[in-house]
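Contributing new complexes? Match this layout with beta-D-glucopyranose.
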Amino acid sequence: MIQTQILQEAPFSPHRLNKYASLHTCGNGRTGIRGCHEEAYTDQQRGMFVAGFYHRANATEVTELVNLPDITGMRIELDGESFSLLSGTLMSYQRELRTMNGELYRELVWQSPAGQQFKIETRRFVALAPLALVACRLTVTALGSDAHLCVSTGIDATQTNSGRQHLNECSVRVFDHNVLQGCYQTTDGQQQAIITSRCVIPSGASSSFSAKNRQLLQHISLPLQAGEAVTLEKFSWIATSLDADAGPDNTWAQRCLEALSAVAQQSYGHLLMEHTGHWQHYWRASRVGVESDDPQDQRALDFALYHLKLMIPAHDARASVAAKGLTGEGYKGHVFWDTEIFILPFALLNAPEQARQLLEYRFRHLSPAQDKARRNGYEGALFPWESAFSGEEETPEFAAINIRTGQRQRVASALAEHHLVADVAYATAGYFQATQDGEFMQQTGLALLKETALFWMSRAVRRHHRLEILNVIGPDEYTEHIDNNAFTNYMAHYNVQTACEYLRQSGHQDEAFFRRAEDFLTQLYLPQPDQQGVIAQDDTFLSKPQCDLTAYKTQQGTQAILLDYSRAEINEMQVLKQADVVMLMHLLPAQFTPHCQAANLRFYEPRTIHDSSLSKSVHAIVAARTGQAAQALQFYREACRIDLGDEPHSSDDGIHAAATSAVWMGALMGFTGLDYQSGELHFRPALPQGWRQLQFPLCWRGSRLKVTIEAQQFTLRKTDARPLTVRVNGLSHTFTESLILKGSHDEI
Ligand code: BGC
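Output block (do not edit by hand):
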C-alpha cells in the first residue's frame, strides 16, 4: 500500500528556488532549515528558525521569528570554477525531500564552463534526536580527469530577516583546528544562540579558517582523483537560550562543543540510520493511507504529515505553531487562530499531549490577554490576533501599500478579529472531549473557558431588545467592522455555553457568572436561516451589491482584487476572502441541518475568492458532509495544490501551515465525516469517486484506533479491550476490539 515517500523537485528552475526551499524544509518541530541549495543564488532566501526564538529588531518593526546564522551554505569550487546551477551545463539533476526520513537529497552531474564533468551529491537532515543536531554531507566525484576541489563553509551570521539584523556577534572561535563556534545575542540582550559546527574532512585535505564580516568559515582544499568519490561531512549543534540546559554560565558554550564532538564521532550514515528510525516510528503511528486513482492524493497527505511533524513544537509549551511553521519568514513567524482550528485537531487525534501543550501556550498568556481585554474595556481574556513569545499583540499596524490608492492599509484584525477568543475555547472543549483529561481541565481548561466566556459577556451589547456583538471582523477579512457576524456570534454562544457546562460539572460556585451566562445564552442574537436556508454573514452583507469575481477566482490566493479596489470599496460588496458562514458549518455541524449547510455553501462559494489558503479545504469538508462528493474532491484537490501546485511563487516565504494541516483534516473530517466535538466519535463515510480505501489511526480517550473505510466496508480496530461507543451515520455502535460494518456508505 505504502508508496515511496519523496517530494521531488520538478526540473531545476531558478524561478522555483524559494518555493522548493520552503517545501523542502528539514526540521524537527524545534528547528527548521529551509531547503536551500548549498551554493548561493541571488534570489535564494536562506532560513534557519528555532521555535519560540523571537525578537524585535527596533521600535519601527514587529517581533519576528529570528532567521539564525546559516550553516548549510557551501561555496564549492571545482578546478577554480565556482559551482552554480546557473553556469556550465547541467547534465542530470535530481533533488528530492525524502519525507519518509526528512532527508534532503540532491544528485547531479555538472559540466563546468571549462568542460570538465563532476558528479555532486548533497544530503542533509535535522535530527529528530537530539533536537540540536544538523547533519550535512557533500560528495564530489571528478568524472573526467583529475581535478581540484575547494569548499568554504561554516557559520554565516550575515543572515538577516530580509534585512533586519537581530543578532550581535559576541564571539567566534575555532577550536582544535576543526570546530567552529559562534555565540550570538539578540540586540536587546535578551536571548542567546550558540552555533557550533565541525567538518569531517577527507585525509589529504588541507584546511584554513577565516573570521570576518560575520562569517566564520573553514576553507577546505583537496585533490580529486578521476572517478574517486570524495566526501565531506559537516555536523552542527544549534543551541539557544530557550534550551533547558542553556547558559547563563560560561560553561554553556563548552557544553555545546562537547555535545557536538560526541555526536560527530559517528558518521553521517550512522546518524541518519538512527534518525530514520524515529521517523519510521512517527509514520507508523500517524500515516494516513489513501488508495486513489490519483497518486497525488497520497503525496499530498504525506506532505501534510511530514510538515505537521516539523511545525508542532512538541518539545516546548512556550512555543506554538507559526503560520508558516518553521519554513520561512512569512507572517513574521506569528501564531494565529490557524493553530487552534486547523493544526490542533491533528495533534489531538494523534498525539494529544501535543494538543495540550498548544493550549498551555495560550494559558501561559492569559495575563497579557486579560490586559488586552481591560485596555479595550472588556472583561476576561482577549488573546492577541497575532502572537509570538510574550503573548502580547503582535499584529503589524499596517499591511502593504495599496497600489491603487497609494495608502498604507491598516490591519484591523488586532482591533476587531475577536473570534480567536472563541476558537481557543472551542479547541479547549475539543481537547477535553477527545481525552477526558480532568487534570488539564482543572489546571488550565476551566480558566481558559471562563475567561473567554467572560470576554464575550462583556463584549456583547444590548440593542434591539437582545444582545448583539458589534464591530467585529469574522474569518472573512474582506468584510471588516460589521455587526453580528454569524460566525462570531455562534462561536461566542458556543464558548459561553461550553464554559457553563464544564464549570457546573466541576462544581464551580460562581452563581453570578452562571446567571449572567444564562442571560447571555438566551439573549444573544443568532442569525437564523432564511427561507432558502441562507444565514446572513452579518447584518448588512445581504444588502450589498454582488461583484463578478471570475477574474479574481482564477488568481485566487494572490489578493489580486486589492489592485482594483480599495479595502473600503471591497467592504461594501459581497466579496469574501475566505470561508466564513461555511467555516461555521464546518465547526458546529450539529447546529445546522444538512439542507442549511448545503444552502450556505451554494450561496457563499460564488462570492468567495479563496484568497486565504484556509478557505478551500473548509469548503471541501462541508461539501463532502452534505453529500456533494465530486465537488468536495475538487475543492480538496485544489486545497492540496496550495503549496504543491505549479505556481512557482505560491510558497516563497514558507508553506501554509494551516492549509497543510487541512489536507489531513479535509480527508478525515470531509470524506469520513469525522466529528468529535460533541464528545462522541461520529463518522459519516463518503469516499469520493476514485478513492478505494482510506486508512488512518486515531487516538481517542486513551485508545488507539485504526479506521479503514472502503466502498463496501467500514472497519474500526482498537488495541485495547475497553468498550467504546461510536456513531456511524447517526447509529450508535458499542464494541471492544473491532467494529466491522458491511455495506455501502449509505447502508451502514
Ligand atoms: C487569513 C487568516 C489567517 C492568516 C494566517 C490570513 O490571510 O485571512 O485567517 O489566520 O492569514 O494564516
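Reviewers usually confirm one structural detail per submission. For this one: The chain has two domains: 6-258, 285-693.
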